[in-house]
Amino acid sequence: MVTEQPDYKAILETDSELNKIQDFDILLERILLEARKVVNADAGSIYVKETEIETGCKTEKLAIKYAQNDTILKGLPPGQKSIYSIFKIPIDEKTISGYCAYTRKLLNVKDAYNLPPDVPYTFSSTYDMISGYKTTSILAIPLVTADGRLLGVIQVINARDAHGTTVPFSAQDEFLISHFAENATTALERASMTRAMILRMIKMAELRDPKETGAHVNRVASYAVEIYDRYAFRHGIGVVEQEKFRDTLKIAAMLHDVGKVAISDVILKKPGRFTPEEVVIMQGHTVSGAVLFDDPQSSLDTISMNIALCHHENWDGSGYPGWVDIVTGVPQKTGPDGKPLGKTGEEIPLESRIVAIADVFDALGSKRVYKEAWDETMVYAEIRKESGIKFDPELVEIFFEIIPSIKQIQNLYPESKAPH
């Protein structure tokens, strides 16, 4: 039998592409996809090490971040994403991924249902029973930095040969995935620093406005990416353009309310409704946020500025701040009453229209000092009611098409948990 030789050029190009991705979560998703390609795996998952405080003690666990399965995906309607369980596992010898993280060594399992009797770990068939999928071969590789820190684990499942038959992972697969993991870890370190810098900016906003939690901005940004992905599918946007835009969108969406740092605490932390005068001052956070990205040096600056400035513009033109000079605050277009004219329809940048839905959806479903969280049914009804008024009608349609993904994001970033 002729063994298919790996495409080393493609692997090197993949390493280069990973280093272009800015957002930590987007990078995790891409790393899993590319790791599977390297060893021709049908499925896989990627875990990140997280530290939790339990009964006053620190414990380290692996939290699943992404799971992919080509076999299951093929059975779904075009454009729909597969949904996976959200869970955490201890870093110990009891599970395959936990063992890989605990020993920090690659683990090659030939047959998950027939493990050698002398190994300490076991395989849980729960997911297989729920999904109807059969896991056979597993290759787990730790993501360890040059200074010995564990970032997480990649687990790829069911190697496929040239005929599509499930086979064990080979020694060559072990070599390739080890090389890939080294470069992926370097890219993750860089993206982690970017994420930390972004979260520090958000933390400043959170210190001023308790509503701007890490969980809130992670949910809003993740909703925005899911909405955009479906939009891109509908409009036939190419993979390269889509990947570049969603990476930038994820980071920029997290900064949508960063301009609130310029608002007085007297208003920002008021435990009740604003007066009309206070509303006008509060609306100024859009311009203040946009000013932070004036003189843009990259597409990230441009998209961040658009989102900060325009995520409160309404589809029908009734939003704010309208056509204003972000440096002087002077209206560039005014109505008969002398007030700034709001942007309408597609005058509002796509990224801003997307974040508008994501932000309102999350805010309505969250508890605030001046209101209780709305019931899910009420939130959905409000989003539908505002279609064509506050929100882009097509994006509202898309939002309801991806509700399973929206719910999964809510599970990934619950309010009580701190962001990674």
Report on the architecture of this protein.
There is one protein chain. The protein is 47% helix and 13% strand. With 420 residues, it is α+β, with helices and mostly antiparallel strands. Strands 1, 2, 3, 4, 5, 6 and 7 form a 7-stranded antiparallel beta sheet that branches. A hairpin with a 5-residue loop joins strand 6 and strand 7 (166-167). Helix 2 (24-39) packs antiparallel against helix 6, helix 11 runs antiparallel to helix 12 (299-310) and helix 12 crosses helix 13. The longest helix is centred in the middle third of the chain and has 38 residues, at 171-208.
Q: What's the helical proportion of residues?
A: 40-55%
Overall 3D shape: elongated
Largest sheet: 7 strands, antiparallel
Cα gyration radius (Å) = 23 Å
Number of strands: 7
- Assembly status: single chain
Strand content: 5-15%
Give the class from helix and strand content and strand pairing: alpha+beta
As for the CATH topology of the largest domain, it is: Hypothetical protein af1432
**Unreliable runs, pLDDT <50, ≥5 residues?**
none
Features:
420 residues, alpha+beta, Beta-Lactamase, Hypothetical protein af1432, 2 domains, seven-stranded antiparallel sheet, 16 helices, 7 strands, elongated
